[in-house]
Structures are given as C-alpha cells and as structure tokens.
Design the sequence.
C-alpha cells in the first residue's frame, strides 16, 4: 500500500512545439509522483512487547537503520485485544490474529 497524503505535482506547461527536454521533464515529474505513491514508507503497524506490557503501536525505524518489533506470543494471549497479531510458538512461530 502506498503513502497517504501525497500531493499531486504541478506539471510543467506544454510547449507549443514538441520539445524533447520538456517531455523528459514531464515524464520525470510523473515518475517521481508514482514512486511516492508506490513507496510504503518507513511506518509499520504492529502489536509489540514493551517489557512485560503488550501494546499495539505505530513504529518507525530510526534514521539510518531498521527496527524489528518484538511481537507477543500465545503466552500473552490473555492481554491481547481481538485483532492483535502474535506468534504462536507452539505451532512453530506461526503468525496468528486473536479472534
């Protein structure tokens, strides 16, 4: 899923006669716009473990690195809300959704 709140760019005006450089600029701007739409961005949504507390949160990796959230397991099932994601380690670390 692409980024939300991406604003459509202002396209350069068309020249009266065909101009190779003007067309390249238009295609460059359109390509940049589509790349922004296709980029999922650095934000992820997950259920995470913060010490002993289980929380659902938005997380973004720090600049220049990646952040891998620690998901809860079936041992935390009683503290999870319906719809939260957890690892079922008894089934071989299968991701499950609490129903």
Sequence:
């Amino acid at each position: 899923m692409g980024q939300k709140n991406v604003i459509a760019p202002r396209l350069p005006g068309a020249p009266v006669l065909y101009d190779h450089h003007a067309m390249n600029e238009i295609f460059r701007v359109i390509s940049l716009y589509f790349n922004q739409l296709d980029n999922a961005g650095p934000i992820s949504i997950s259920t995470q473990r913060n010490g002993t507390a289980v929380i659902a949160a938005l997380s973004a990796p720090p600049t220049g690195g990646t952040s891998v959230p620690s998901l809860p397991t079936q041992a935390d099932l009683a503290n999870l809300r319906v719809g939260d994601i957890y690892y079922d380690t008894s089934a071989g670390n299968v991701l499950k959704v609490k129903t």
In short: The chain has a mean pLDDT of 74. The chain has one helix and four strands. Strands lie at 44-50, 53-59, 85-88, 94-97.
